[in-house]
């Protein structure tokens, strides 16, 4: 990936920042996007490579074509796109306002579609490249307290699978990644039922994989030409596997979790 140009959204922290460090170590040139300019600049300084900090609001869809122009013009090409930006949720569907669904789907699904659509003709026209889309185990299986997040992340898988099917023979590789718990701010930044920010983490997240280890697995999969990667261990890996091998067993397990008080445990930080 030396001298390739990679555009990473959600690059200010977590998996996005870890991928920036890992790609920088390989000698790639980076376009870093998100909303927090200071954090993006810190990641750029830490990446050890040539960078363009390109902050934008993910849901400002009208601005995306011009941003794509600017990103492409920086080096005259883009070899890789990482669709990583997103927000999660921690609330029961029965309690959750429709505005929460609108916000999460706008950020987690429509924004990466808008950006990919702006770049896709150019990437294919230039001979292809690589797209890495960060979905979730919750994008493979609908799990409690994440109905909006699961809906958006299922959509990420479906959209990118279609893009792969249509363009792989034209040189475009697509890797969809479904992480389980990774030690990021995803839970702190998650939305409650009323749209407020949760402000605290989960035990599962705090005990999850490190962002750097996750990034290493993602780039190894990209090197190998892998099309889908589940980055999870234990129960979370089992959830992804069961959804495809024995969905009824998974549905029974999810139902049992909720009946055993999973939602209440999440509120008190005692989930396991």
Written account of the structure:
- The chain is an alpha/beta fold.
- The protein is 49% helix and 12% strand.
- A seven-stranded parallel β-sheet has the order 3-2-1-4-5-6-7, sandwiched between helices.
- Helix 1 (14-25) crosses helix 7 and helix 3 (64-75) packs parallel to helix 4 (98-125).
- The mean pLDDT is 93.
Question: What is the secondary structure topology, with strand pairs?
Answer:
Layout: E1 5-8, H1 14-25, E2 29-32, H2 37-47, E3 51-53, H3 64-75, E4 80-83, H4 98-125, E5 129-134, H5 147-167, E6 172-179, H6 203-206, H7 211-224, E7 228-231, H8 234-245, H9 247-259, H10 262-268
Parallel strand pairs: 1-2, 1-4, 2-3, 4-5, 5-6, 6-7
**Proportion of residues in β-strands:** 5-15%
Q: Indicate how many domains the architecture comprises.
A: 1
Strand order, sheet with most strands: 3-2-1-4-5-6-7
Q: Please tell me the overall pLDDT.
A: 93
Portion of residues within helices: 40-55%
Q: What distance separates the N and C termini?
A: 39 Å
Which segments are poorly predicted (pLDDT under 50) over 5 or more consecutive residues?
none
User: Would you count the extended β strands for me?
Assistant: 7
Major β-sheet profile: 7 strands, parallel
Number of helices: 10
- Tell me the name of the CATH homologous superfamily: NAD(P)-binding Rossmann-like Domain
CATH topology: Rossmann fold
Rg over alpha carbons: 18 Å
């Amino acid at each position: 990936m030396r001298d390739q140009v990679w555009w990473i959204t959600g690059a200010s922290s977590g998996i996005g920042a870890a991928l920036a460090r890992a790609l920088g170590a390989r000698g790639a040139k980076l376009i870093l996007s998100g909303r927090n300019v200071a954090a993006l600049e810190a990641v750029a300084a830490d990446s050890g490579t040539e960078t363009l900090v390109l902050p934008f609001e993910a849901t400002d869809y009208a601005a995306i074509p011009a941003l794509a122009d600017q990103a492409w013009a920086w080096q005259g090409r883009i070899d890789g796109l990482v669709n990583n930006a997103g927000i999660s949720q921690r609330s029961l569907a029965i309690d959750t306002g429709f505005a929460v669904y609108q916000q999460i789907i706008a950020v987690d699904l429509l924004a990466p579609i808008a950006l990919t659509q702006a770049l896709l003709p150019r990437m294919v026209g230039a001979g292809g490249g690589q797209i890495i889309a960060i979905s979730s185990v919750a994008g493979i299986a609908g799990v409690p307290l994440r109905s909006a997040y699961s809906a958006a992340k299922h959509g990420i898988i479906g959209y990118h699978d279609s893009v792969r099917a249509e363009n792989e023979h034209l040189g475009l590789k697509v890797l969809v990644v479904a992480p389980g718990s990774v030690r990021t701010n995803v839970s702190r930044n998650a939305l409650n039922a009323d749209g407020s920010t949760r402000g605290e983490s989960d035990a599962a997240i705090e005990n999850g994989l490190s962002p750097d280890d996750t990034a290493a697995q993602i780039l190894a999969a990209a090197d190998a030409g892998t099309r889908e990667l589940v980055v999870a261990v234990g129960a979370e890996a089992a959830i992804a596997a069961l959804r495809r091998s024995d969905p009824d067993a998974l549905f029974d397990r999810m139902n049992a979790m909720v009946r055993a008080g999973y939602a209440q445990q999440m509120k008190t930080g005692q989930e396991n």
